[in-house]
Every structure is written in structure tokens, then in C-alpha cells.
Amino acid sequence: MRTIDTIYINGSFVQPHGKEEAALFNPATEEQIGIVRLGDEQDVDKAVSAAKAAFAILSQSSKAERIAMLHSLHDAVSARAADLTDAMREEYGAPASFIGFSVPHAATSFLHMASTLETYEFRRRIGHAEVEMRPAGVAAAITPWNSNYGFICGKLATAIAAGTTMVVKPSEMSAIQTQLLTECLHAAGLPNGVFNIVNGYGHVVGAALSAHRDIAKISFTGSTVTGRAILQAASATFKRVTLELGGKSPNVILDDADLDTVIPQVLAAGFANSGQACIAGTRVLAPESRLAEIHDRLAGAVATLKVGDASDPEVSIGPMVSQKQWDRVQSYIRLGQEEGARLIIGGEGRPEGLNRGWFVRPTIFSDVSNDMRIAREEIFGPVLCVIPYRDEAHALEIANDTVYGLQAYVFSSDLARAKRVAERIDAGRVVINGAPHEPLAPFGGFKQSGIGREFGTYGLESFLEPRAVLS
Question: Cα separation of 442 and 463, whole Å?
């Protein structure tokens, strides 16, 4: 069993002042595999002080120096890809397909930001003004458990590119992954204090960062409820915030779609990361004219999906991250039936043959109306709702009838038609016909899915403030 009793401040692994501990589990077996000692407000103060001291130097660094740092970070993370993969599999349980994306994505996020930085102009002439894009100040990153490496690396890469130092508060449930990643980042040899990592609870470490007088910028990924609390705390000192929050993404199947191609893609979008993804396409909008066919195709395809331990490469859906999350998903499956929705496949309990582990039966509901809670609230598990629509206008009405607006999916045999539909969906990203991820395009949400954007130039500028000097 692993004991993690250090945090990372000012270039060193140090014991936290905090005394609280949290247990770590393998979600596929429910066995405790470790324990982590958590930081507190005093640890936050030390980390912020280190970042503040380092900011005076990093903010004056050259573009070339920052690019070199980003390349060093990429190399250090890439060097331990196998170890990172093993840790994520054991502590989080994501299927091989997701881990196979997540670990390389974490490393290459440094290269993508280095590429962005190479062509970015920090000084521009506008009329008789000289405009300079300056680092906003010491930043805090608060990251979730569902893609620990990617969120930490992506936010850190952007901060360094901007000349901003950072304090990271990762999820306490990902401490084994965080410890290993921190070792990688340390090996890159960056100046002390450029990044600092403090394990801790959100209501302790996260709250202290959100209210800290010396934090100028917060980048948070997580639930809308927590994002709202962070925004309120940050408002007292007018911190700049980027919030990437929840989603209830529409997965729109147009009536001309080729179901042989589309059904696997619809399920891939809906069950991404075992359903534990803010971008999961959990509302499947199906034309009434093809509803029965789509039901049959979905049920048949789901029946072939393998649920289980991520050590099996054939597994498509892994466990929920915790007992609490398993209970939450089970409660929504019960709720859907109480609301009058009909189960096409799945239901409560574990899949057949799995007697332990926080595994959920992949579940699809039909006879769902968009006013049901299962259609409006983020479940964060492998549970999809099929919602019928009459025509294209009705589909758009349903797609946009949500408090969220993070991502959406459109499937059609007619690309021009799919693009016309995409243009009318209120979401930060719309994916047409399963298009691949674009790491330089802006990512973030409309409405209660967040504030601001990440990735590429849009993400870089969220860590910068423009200053104009007129002469």
C-alpha cells in the first residue's frame, strides 16, 4: 500500500503542515491501495509565496526560455509514459482506449503550447498605442479526478507560456497519479517555485486558493456547483477566472445518418471515459421516423460492450471512480424509471459476472422527455437518454433547451447540412461526424458550462492582461 506524505513546494517534496489523511482505492476491486496526507491553508500560503517569488523571474523570461521549459516538461513526462499508464489504470480504472489518449495528450500539451508560443506576439502596435500582453499574476489550477494528468499538464503548460507561475490543487482521489506526475515535472529541472502542487480537499485547499490575496488567476475544471462557489470567492478580489464546468451534451442523429457508421460513434461520445466526462454526449436526439431502428441498433451495440477491469484491453467501460459516484449513478437509474422513462438496456446494479468493483451496467433510457431530471442533470456515468424529435427545428429546440453548453455532436450523411445544424447549437464545441480532437482550437462552454476558453491562443490569453502605452 502506498503512503504519500509529501507535497511539492518551491522545487522540493516537503511534508505538509496539514494532518488530515484520505484513503486511496482501486475502483475495480474496491481495495484500499494507499493513503495520502493532505495540505491545509498554511501549506497554501507557503506554495503561493514560492510562486510569487518565482513570478518575478518567470514573468521577465524570454519566449525562447519558456519554449525550452515546455520542451523539457514534455520530455520528462514522456519518459515515464509506461509508469503513468500503470498508475492511472490502477487508481482510476479508465479503459485502455482512454488511457491510451490521456497519457500522450498530457505530454504533448506542452508541445502544443510551445507551438502556440512560437508565433504569438506579446507586443502589438494599435494606432498610436503600444499594446503589451503581460502575465496576469500568480495562478491557481484546481483540477478533477477524471483526467488528472491532462488537466494538470494543460493548465501548467499554458501558465508557463504566459510567464505565469502556478499552484495546483489536484483531486485528493488521484494522489498516486499526482505523485508520479510531480516526479516527472520535477525532473524537467524548472526554476524553483514555477509550479507548486498541494494535495487537499476542495473546501480547504481549493477554498484557500480561491480567496487568497496573492492569487490573480484561477483555472478550474469540475462541477458547475463548485465553479459557482469558486467564482463567488474569487469575486472578492476580482480574480480572473477560467471555469470549465458540467455538460449535458446533445448527440444529434439527423434522419439521413448512416446508422452503421453513426451508432458506434454515438456510443463512443456518450460512454467516453466510462461516462465520467463533462463532454459526454448523453442526450441522444433521434428522429421519430427512425426511432425504433435506432433503439434496436443502440441496444444491440451496447450488448457487445465489455465492462470490467482496465487491465483487459477489450474493456470499453471501466468502473466509477468511487463508491459515492457509483451510488450517484445508481440513484439516477432508479430516478429515470420513477420518472416514467423506459429501459432499453442496462439498469441498476453491477453487470453480470462482476461481483465487486464500482462497475455500472451501461444503460440507455427511451421514452425520455427533455424536462425529466435524467435529461437535464449531469449523471457522470454510462447512462444515455434517447429523446425523439419531429424535425430539424424540433431537434435544435431540444438541443438548446439546457442550462449547459459545453459540447455537442451532430451526425449526418450530408456534411453541409450537419454544419448548418451545428451553427445553430449553443455550445462551445460542436463535433461533426466524430471529428477528432483539435488541441489548438478553443475549448470551453456557453451558459452554465463555464467562463472563458482553454487551449491554443485562446487559452494563452486567458493568463494574460493587455496594457496599452500611448505616445
Answer: 14
Which alpha helices (DSSP H) does 361-437 contain, by range?
373-376, 392-400, 415-423
Catalytic residue among 91, 172, 244, 378: 244
pLDDT in tens, 52-110: 999 999 999 999 999 999 999 999 999 999 999 999 999 999 999 999 999 999 999 99
Instruction: Specify the CATH architecture of the domain 250-432.
Output: 3-Layer(aba) Sandwich (3.40)
Strands (E), 120-278: 123-126, 129-135, 139-142, 166-169, 195-197, 217-221, 240-244, 250-253
* Phi-psi domain of 347 (left: phi exceeds 0; alpha: psi -120 through 50; beta: other): left
271 touches 305 (CB < 8 A):
yes
Catalytic residue status for 244: yes
**Strand ranges for 299-458 from DSSP E:** 342-345, 363-366, 383-389, 407-411, 429-432, 450-451
Q: How far apart are the first and last CA of the chain?
A: 64
**In CATH terms, is domain 2-245+447-470 a member of 3.40.605.10?**
yes
* CATH 3.40.605.10 residue spans of the chain: 2-245+447-470
Instruction: Cite the residue boundaries of each domain of the chain with CATH code 3.40.309.10.
Output: 250-432
The three grid cell numbers given for residue 89, joined into one nine-digit string: 489504470
In this prediction, residue 4 carries a pLDDT of 98
**How many angstroms separate the most distant Cα atoms in the chain?**
75
Centre a 10 Å sphere on the Cβ of residue 416 and count the other Cβ atoms it contains: 7
Strands in 166-169's sheet, in edge-to-edge order, are 12-14, 7-9, 195-197, 166-169, 139-142, 217-221, 240-244, 450-451
**With 0-12 CB in 10 A as exposed, 13-18 as middle and 19+ as buried, what is 231?**
middle
